[in-house]
UniProtKB/TrEMBL annotation:
Belongs to the nlpA lipoprotein family. It is found in: Membrane. SUPFAM superfamilies: Periplasmic binding protein-like II. InterPro entries: Lipoprotein_NlpA. Pfam families: Lipoprotein_9 (PF03180). This is Lipoprotein.
């Protein structure tokens, strides 16, 4: 009995020593993948067009740097910031600074801009009229219902002399800031994502460029009135949280979005509907 016990103890000791040896090899990286760079997963929320398309174009470059980019698409402007704040995303790419400022203030987020990437000119479109001169008395005009983009629409109308605002430079102007409306326009506010669907209903519809592109509209060719690209304060930005904005993977993503390859991709693919931002 003692011999069997001794033999059993010997086998257990050998097994323990072998396990320790294996753990030592694993801890030291002594396997077939020794020296291989660790891959970092980076999850970024984006609007389908053009943001997700731009991100998809840089996947190979980031993969070569050890970053596996996962692009999560959203068709609204609410969830990307909420999920970033909840740490379900590492970054997002769909908005401009005035919109981010409003979101942080109204929803208590602590999200920060990492870098501007491109500019999407905002414009007014119509299937019913070919110029603003044809805008009839009482015409229906649809604008986005968020403060920053609704303000953009009103500023464009004011610039063309269609309405007058208290302050023609206030990018957060609202309907309540209209001081003169000679054509008695019926201005309705709806979610930005719904704007393309209003083209069959309203006389003039203001659409963010990403939604315009999805509806096969090119701002440079199809808009009746459009923002200037020069000095445009609405550059679309890469956004992260305060706690990860300086992370290596986020900074490499920002650098890739500023590459000459991306600038060429934007110019060739969108033909003036989207332009690279100037820093």
């Amino acid at each position: 009995m003692k011999k069997w016990s001794f033999a059993l103890l010997s086998l257990m000791l050998i097994a323990v020593l072998a396990a320790c040896g294996n753990n030592k090899d694993a801890d030291s990286g002594a396997d077939n993948s020794a020296g291989a760079p660790r891959t970092v997963e980076l999850k970024v929320g984006a609007s389908p067009t053009p943001h997700a398309e731009i991100l998809e174009s840089i996947k190979p470059e980031l993969e070569a740097q050890g970053i596996r980019l996962q692009v999560v698409t959203f068709n609204d402007y609410v969830q990307p910031n909420q999920q970033l704040a909840d740490k379900k995303l590492d970054a997002n790419f769909f908005q401009h600074q005035p919109y981010l400022d409003t979101e942080n203030k109204e929803r208590g987020f602590n999200l920060v801009s990492v870098t501007p990437v491109h500019v999407e000119p905002f414009g007014g479109y119509s299937k019913k009229i070919k110029s603003l001169d044809e805008l009839a008395d009482g015409a229906k005009v649809a604008i986005p219902n968020d403060p920053s983009n609704g303000g953009r629409a009103l500023l464009l109308l004011a610039k063309e002399g269609v309405i007058t605002l208290k302050d023609n430079t206030n990018i957060t102007s609202t309907i309540q800031d209209i001081t003169a409306n000679p054509k008695n326009l019926d201005i309705i506010e709806l979610d930005a994502a719904m704007m393309p669907r209003q083209l069959d209903e309203a006389d003039l519809v203001f659409i963010n460029a990403n939604y315009a592109l999805e509806a096969n509209l090119n701002p440079a060719n199809d808009a009746l009135l459009i923002e200037d690209l020069q000095g445009n304060p609405y550059a679309n930005i890469l956004v992260s949280r305060e706690d990860n904005k300086d992370a290596d993977a986020i900074q490499k993503l920002a650098a890739a979005l500023h590459s000459e390859e991306v600038k060429t991709f934007i110019k060739e693919r969108y033909k003036g509907a989207v332009e690279p931002a100037t820093e």
